[in-house]
Amino acid sequence: MMERHFQQRETSSGNSNVQKFLTEVMxxxxxxxxxxxxxxDTRRADLYFEEVRLHHPKDAVHGxxxxxxxxxxxxxxxxxxxxxxxxxGYHLGSTGRHPTSTEDLLEQTRWAIRRVDxxxxxxxxxTSNGSFLDPxxxxxxxxxxxxxxxxxAGFRFVVVETRPRFVTNERLDNINDCVASDGM
Length: 184
Hints:
The chain starts with a helix and ends with a helix. The chain has a four-stranded mixed β-sheet with strand order 1-2-3-4, with no helix packed on it. The longest helix has 30 residues. The chain has two domains: 32 residues; 146 residues, no CATH class. The chain is an alpha/beta fold. It has five helices and four strands.
């Protein structure tokens, strides 16, 4: 009975009302203040480990494994400033709307490399506090350098997260070019 009532309400109100409601909820939550508004140490990244239930890329026999997730402390996602995604908490580790310097991003990458052994963890999630391909979070000219640092350290499977609007042929070519010279 309750399910039928919900379906009727959803059909009669349309998706736009649901979207408006969720946007308003997220806007109010973001406006109420978050830890991202407190000063952050921008010389180190955040490091988490997530259980992945897919087969390991180098060992399809074994099941779940731990995968490190490195989140660079950057300004928060532009989408987060207007409403944000209901399932995303990246803004909590961000520097708010304060940009992170190139030197700090380099140091955060060095920090992560010192703490994650590529011999033990073949796959690394390496992203910013929003969209890794957003030039406001990670400058286009710096991104290949960061990825090359990971490659030189021994990481061969690197996952990044980004919003689709930042995916361009030029950015993908730049990422590919930073490791293609070694025949990868």
